[in-house]
Amino acid sequence: MNKLNEAKATPVRYTSELSIAVTSYSKAGETANNKMGSSIDVLHAGGAWWTDFISPKSEGSTATPEHHDAITADIVAGFSAADRKLLATPTKSLDEEVKVVKRAVQMKIGAYRGALAKWLKNRQEPEAKADKTRAPQQAVAKTGDKVVDEANALVAKATKKVADLQNWMVNNLPEATSQETAKHATGMLNAISTH
After folding, report:
1. Residue 195 and residue 190: Cα distance in Å, rounded?
2. I need a surface site. Which of 43, 49, 118, 147 has the fewest CB within 10 A?
């Protein structure tokens, strides 16, 4: 396999099948991000608390064991038929390789529960996360030159605005969107601070 960069052309190995696969992947990601965001909106508007997604055995949980089981059932309902069947199969009846697969599927339940708790918490308690991520305030050094001091003050103010924007995005946008947008905000921050 030749891995050299074909400088001025799309490589022959990049077939239309691969092109379709890349488009399909990005389209699925966009669809998933939009659906996840709207699900969080529905949960928030419907009165779900982020603490409903914490195990009832943990401190701070607002879930009863029955509520916890209902959420688990709802998460599993979104899995493939094969994964649901595997979860319903007694672990002792499985061989070692399949036990590993079942464990991975069980871990997905916790991952989804944790993601729901995280996004609801970001929506319901944005100040908690914002306080942790806020950049420390830095004093603007005075040079004695009125123009330079004024420019430095404007840079400090712009830097704070960009940091506040990044915090707002982390707390209010779906993760993939906030990460992508934060890259642009970081670029703005770098441009401001280097001039």
Report:
1. 9
2. 147
